[in-house]
Sequence to fold (156 residues):
Amino acid sequence: MGGKMAQKLKTSKSQSVGPDSPIPDKLYFKIGEVAKLVGVQPHVLRYWEREVSSIKPGKTAANQRRYRRRDVELFRETKRLLYDEKFTLAGAKQQLLEYGATKVESPSGVSKSSASRDTQPTPREDDGKLSSRLENCENLLDKARSEVDAMLDLIR
Fold:
């Protein structure tokens, strides 16, 4: 092989994309790219998309899926819950709902918010889901407050 061709092959192999690699800084991803970033086959992504209501890809004029960074993060979190934490799909969906599908696990294992510049709510998300999430958060906060009060009573 010529020098330039061999160099090109070496470069493309060293910049591989996989489930442990960082998510590239792009606005949109095709299903094949997302499958590589998550580490599952595209048909698995399509199935999870149908089952997890938080994942709503856009479509191109040619009716191809366009995923955003938030979708990739949700797919990775779904995979972590299913494969690592051994949740059922129903359990994983519940976990995603409880956390409002806004906290995702980074590859280093540190929780972070997925509210980045490309994850703004879309007009497709209805206000009912948002108010339900807010109510859920308020209930969790009330429960935490009462538990802290009970612990303070024990200390006193």
